[in-house]
């Protein structure tokens, strides 16, 4: 593999943190010795492999960005549901029904009168809804919120790491390309000098 994973055996475990299986791109310091490695027969072969690695990074970035977008949409929904549960918790002791509006469809709301209750139904997704006591529902949602926030933070770190690997691979491509241009120009100079 062109952008081979580097083995930092003396690095601390925190520095070796895996970023969702994203391979680390090794910076090509010495292009001459890099091109002499097995599998690097020509600059075209190397550039093709590096370009393939770039495409993989772009694909990973697209997937991670989509996950990030889903999480950014999910967190406000969980927060809003938690606020509603806290409000219901306060009104639980009250004997009069809670007056509210609920959404039937996009931009279509209906007035509702909710009697005091200690149970709520949570929509879990995949056409599944479960009834919980308010305390259990609140604990579940708080756990889901902290998990979603943690996942969002990890995703942002992974996206930053991925952008670094993408940049390193592009720099490697430029270095190999420039090396090849210099090599061909040297060869052309030698050929023209030999003809003279």
How would you describe this structure in keywords?
196 residues; alpha+beta; two-stranded antiparallel sheet; 4 strands; disordered N terminus
Question: What would you say about this model in short?
Answer:
The chain has helices spanning 31-35, 43-91, 134-195, and strands at 98-105, 108-114, 119-125, 128-133. The protein is of the alpha+beta class and 196 residues long.
Order of helices and strands: HHEEEEH
User: What best-fitting shape do the alpha-carbon axes yield?
Assistant: rod-shaped
Q: What is the alpha-carbon Rg in Å?
A: 29 Å
Between the first and last Cα atoms, what is the distance in angstroms?
A: 42 Å
Number of strands: 4
In percent terms, what proportion of residues is strand? 5-15%
Per DSSP, the total helix count is: 3
Mean pLDDT, all residues: 87
* Structural class category: alpha+beta
Outline the low-pLDDT stretches: 1-16
């Amino acid at each position: 593999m062109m952008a081979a994973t580097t083995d930092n055996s003396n690095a601390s475990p925190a520095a070796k943190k895996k970023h969702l299986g994203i391979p680390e791109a090794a910076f090509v310091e010495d292009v001459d010795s890099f091109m002499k490695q097995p599998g690097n027969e020509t600059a075209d072969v190397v550039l093709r492999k590096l370009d393939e690695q770039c495409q993989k990074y772009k694909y990973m970035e697209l997937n991670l960005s989509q996950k990030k977008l889903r999480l950014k949409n999910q967190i406000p929904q969980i927060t809003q549901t938690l606020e509603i549960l806290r409000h219901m918790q306060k009104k639980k002791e009250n004997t009069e029904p809670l007056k509210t509006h609920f959404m039937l469809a996009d931009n279509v709301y209906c007035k509702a009168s909710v009697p005091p209750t200690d149970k709520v139904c949570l929509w879990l997704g995949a056409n599944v809804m479960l009834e919980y006591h308010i305390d259990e529902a609140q604990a579940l949602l708080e756990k889901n919120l902290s998990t979603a926030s943690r996942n969002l933070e990890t995703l942002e770190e992974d996206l930053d790491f991925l952008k670094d690997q993408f940049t390193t691979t592009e720099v490697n491509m430029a270095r190999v390309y420039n090396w090849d241009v210099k090599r061909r120009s040297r060869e052309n100079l030698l050929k023209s000098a030999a003809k003279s």
